[in-house]
Design brief:
With 408 residues, the protein is α/β, with parallel strands linked by helices. Helix content is 43%, strand content 16%. It has a domain at 68-226 and 319-407: Rossmann fold. The protein has helices spanning 2-19, 30-52, 58-70, 125-138, 157-169, 172-177, 192-205, 232-236, 245-255, 263-267, 277-280, 288-291, 294-297, 310-315, 331-334, 351-363, 391-407, and strands spanning 81-87, 90-96, 106-112, 140-146, 180-190, 216-220, 339-347, 368-377, 384-385, 388-389. The strands form 2 sheets. The chain has an 8-stranded mixed sheet with strand order 1-2-4-3-5-6-7-8, with helices on both faces. It has a two-stranded antiparallel ribbon with strand order 9-10. Helix 4 (125-138) packs parallel to helix 17 (391-407) and helix 5 (157-169) crosses helix 7. The relative contact order is 0.12.
Length: 408
């Protein structure tokens, strides 16, 4: 019996050691976040082992586990009509609130989910719940885009899916079918979905044949650049849940169907060293020393290599493709962007991506609202359902919906 107690105590100590992470004192629900992160790490390690054994791709296994766990949750949608459709070959899920008396047309949001271009779905309860609440709170038609994922397809297919679905929806006859006001449409997304939303908005703004354009774009902790993995937020939050720096770099490599052997070189910015000619013209568009406020720069220093590896850009040219990295777009494109909302979190490697994009848009004459949360972390807005319910999720979701309600 004594041996059993000793073993139990040892297992408890090991579990506590695995779960515990030193977190900033401002993070909300720290222990719950540690448990969530430990769960993610354990699942990811299991999936990578399966990949190593060549039984299946780790992202396929991870997505299967996410969807299997998600089936255990039930989210009510009695007041919202939810239908699945296909827009120009792309699956979407449409959330429609009931028609109100004397109401002719509704507002609308095209929403693109996150997940590193590889995980989650418009049909999971996390995004189903978010879009349902958006439809109810805004009395708006919400179109959630079910773009194809890595490893089934890689860049630029996710971008093409999001663009095709959005352009299809913006057709006058389709908007009329859903009773949507053509002058009150927003494009939105979180994380990798924020990346796709920003890229889609940029592309739409340059389409001379488009008769209907979005009124707003709303980006939630978007990932916008793969040029510099040593911005202050990347350095400050390199080991933060839910998105450590190495995980974000791996998502980029998977998105571009690149070689994992480049991961360390990307981490130290070898791909954008001073001797990499392809990157020179973009350097001025992502100078965080001038784009970030001093409160974010703190005492961090730029990491700029004198000599690097030009072959990385040669093998993965998409690293400098503005359809994948919207923060590198030219000023002429930024001037065409609609009124913009960008939500950022202090405890997030992607914080500075959003802040820099807000500043570049502002410099280009676009009206921008930067909604920053000191106590929140990456991905928090979708974590509002037990057992992954966080006060940070409710806080950010309410702020986001409030802005849409006041501006759409």
């Amino acid at each position: 019996m004594r041996a059993a107690w000793v073993l139990l105590a040892a297992l408890a100590a090991l579990s506590a050691y695995y779960v515990y992470l030193p977190l900033p004192g401002t993070v909300s629900d720290p222990w719950k976040l540690m448990v969530l992160d430990a769960t993610f790490r354990a699942v990811q390690q299991t999936c990578h082992l399966i990949h190593y054994l060549r039984l299946s791709h780790h992202l396929i296994v991870l997505n299967y586990l996410i969807c299997t766990f998600d089936k255990l949750k039930s989210v009510s949608s009695e007041d919202i009509n939810i239908t699945d459709a296909v827009f120009d070959g792309v699956e979407v899920r449409v959330f429609e609130p009931p028609a109100k008396r004397d109401e002719r047309l509704k507002r609308s949001v095209v929403y693109i989910h996150g997940g590193g271009w590889a995980l989650a779905s418009a049909r999971t309860s996390l995004y189903n719940n978010l879009c349902r609440i958006m439809a109810e709170s805004l009395n708006a038609v919400v179109v959630s885009v079910e773009y194809r994922l890595v490893p089934e397809v890689c860049f630029p297919e996710q971008f093409h899916d999001a663009l095709r679905a959005t352009k299809h929806f913006l057709q006058p006859d389709v908007l009329a079918e859903y009773s949507v006001d053509p002058s009150r449409i927003a494009i939105s997304g979180d994380s990798a979905g924020g990346n796709l939303a920003a890229a889609v908005c940029q592309q739409l703004s340059k389409d001379e044949h488009l008769t209907i354009r979005p009124k707003l774009q709303a980006l939630i902790y978007p990932v916008l650049q793969a040029f510099d993995f040593n911005t202050p937020s990347y350095q400050q939050n390199m080991n933060m849940p839910v998105l450590p720096r190495y995980v974000m770099i791996n998502y980029w490599i998977d998105y571009f169907n690149g070689n994992y052997d480049f991961a360390h070189s990307l981490l130290i910015n070898n791909h954008t060293a001073l001797d990499v000619g392809q990157a020179l013209s973009f350097r001025g568009r992502l100078n965080w020393t001038s784009l970030l406020p001093s409160s974010f720069k703190k005492n961090y220093k730029p990491v700029i290599q004198t000599t690097g590896k030009a072959e990385i850009i040669q093998e993965i040219p998409a690293l400098l493709d503005v359809r994948a990295v919207p923060l590198l777009a030219e000023n002429e494109t930024l001037q065409l962007q609609p009124k913009t909302y960008i939500l950022t979190c202090e405890n997030d490697v992607l914080r500075d991506d959003g802040v820099m994009y807000a500043k570049r848009l502002e410099n280009a004459g676009v009206e921008v609202t930067l909604d920053h949360f000191d106590d929140c972390f990456h991905g928090c807005m979708i974590f509002t359902i037990w057992p992954t319910d966080f006060s940070a999720g409710i806080q950010t979701r309410n702020s986001y919906i409030k802005w849409l309600d006041e501006n759409l």
